Automatic annotation (TrEMBL):
<feature type="domain" description="HhH-GPD">
    <location>
        <begin position="35"/>
        <end position="187"/>
    </location>
</feature>
<dbReference type="InterPro" id="IPR000445">
    <property type="entry name" value="HhH_motif"/>
</dbReference>
<dbReference type="InterPro" id="IPR003265">
    <property type="entry name" value="HhH-GPD_domain"/>
</dbReference>
<keyword id="KW-0227">DNA damage</keyword>
<keyword id="KW-0411">Iron-sulfur</keyword>
<comment type="similarity">
    <text>Belongs to the Nth/MutY family.</text>
</comment>
<keyword id="KW-0408">Iron</keyword>
<dbReference type="Pfam" id="PF00633">
    <property type="entry name" value="HHH"/>
</dbReference>
<keyword id="KW-0234">DNA repair</keyword>
<keyword id="KW-0326">Glycosidase</keyword>
<keyword id="KW-0378">Hydrolase</keyword>
<dbReference type="InterPro" id="IPR044298">
    <property type="entry name" value="MIG/MutY"/>
</dbReference>
<dbReference type="InterPro" id="IPR011257">
    <property type="entry name" value="DNA_glycosylase"/>
</dbReference>
<protein>
    <recommendedName>
        <fullName>Adenine DNA glycosylase</fullName>
        <ecNumber>3.2.2.31</ecNumber>
    </recommendedName>
</protein>
<keyword id="KW-0479">Metal-binding</keyword>
<dbReference type="Pfam" id="PF00730">
    <property type="entry name" value="HhH-GPD"/>
</dbReference>
<dbReference type="InterPro" id="IPR023170">
    <property type="entry name" value="HhH_base_excis_C"/>
</dbReference>
Length: 289
């Protein structure tokens, strides 16, 4: 893969995303990476900018309650991410002098930080030469290197090895190459409608093979309507929009279609620590009971 062509394209065509601008800290990038997991850029950007203004350093977030963070999370989905980020902020404030570590192994010890996020922070915040692999990167490598329409099942060892083999030798170019590879998959080499005419790569194995169709298992489409996730979201909305603990009857009104599903969703929110029940039987966001 021609790294110079890809980096040149990225320098000209990269989206102007707020976490790529000057003055952004490793903490800001960590917040963006947590928010961007399974959530589109367009939904994340305005919330992220509010968070940077409100919680510019980890200790600022750590000083806020879990409920405040959950309320600010809004409609980003998968709110357990917010709780883990709040927990992570406390560790950074207490054990790391309010700074995000640069070392991948140290990052992996932080609450809520997995292999992808640790590598993304090391690369995009500190310019380290580490492979960063997400769905977009896997797709680009599958097509450009292996000639497949889509990547197979994820394999940490194989996927990181593939990305590592493509990285330029120097740190600064390697970090930019990783960002460019991800950007290419997000904007040009997309899953459903790849725009090969706009691709800066001139050595794509998939194109050379005639763009063979994907022949693997059918992709699973995640539905939302009618799921426990939707019910959980509606229950959380009641508490986010309120100003204190509420009675169970108010929560019961949000989902009358299937009361057993509603009860199951409420129990799961309690188990996950997203909400809590007071001694007198009321319900509140975590930390607000």
């Amino acid at each position: 893969m021609n790294s110079s062509a890809l980096i040149g394209w990225y320098e000209r065509q990269a989206r102007d995303l707020p976490w790529r601008r000057d003055g952004v800290t490793a903490w800001h990038i960590l917040m963006s990476e947590i928010m961007l997991q399974q959530t589109p850029v367009a939904r994340v950007a305005p919330i992220w900018e509010q968070w940077v203004a409100r919680w510019p350093v980890p200790s600022a977030m750590a000083a806020s309650s879990q409920g405040e963070v959950l309320r600010a999370w809004g409609k980003l989905g998968y709110p357990r991410r917010a709780l883990r980020l709040h927990e992570c902020a406390g560790v950074l404030a207490g054990d790391h002098d309010d700074m995000v570590p640069a070392d991948v192994d140290v990052l992996l010890t932080l609450p809520g930080i997995g292999a992808y996020t640790a590598r993304a922070v090391a690369c995009f915040a500190y310019g380290q030469r580490v492979p960063v692999v997400d769905t977009n990167v896997r797709r680009v490598i599958a097509r450009a290197v292996h000639g497949s329409a889509e990547p197979g099942n994820p394999s940490t060892k194989r996927d990181l090895g593939d990305a590592e083999a493509l990285l330029p030798r120097t740190r600064d170019r390697a970090a930019m190459f990783s960002a460019a590879l991800m950007e290419l998959g997000a904007t040009v080499c997309t899953a459903r409608t790849p725009d090969c005419a706009r691709c800066p790569l001139d050595d794509c194995a998939w194109v050379a093979a005639g763009r063979p169709a994907y022949t693997g298992p059918a992709r699973k489409v995640q539905k939302f309507a009618g799921t426990d996730r939707q019910v959980r979201g509606r229950l959380l909305d009641v508490l986010r929009n309120g100003h204190g603990p509420v009675e169970r009857a108010l929560l019961d009104q949000v989902w009358l279609t299937d009361t057993a599903q509603r009860d199951r969703a409420l129990d799961s929110l309690l188990v996950d620590g997203l909400i809590e029940q007071t001694d007198d039987g009321l319900f509140a966001l975590a930390g607000e009971g």
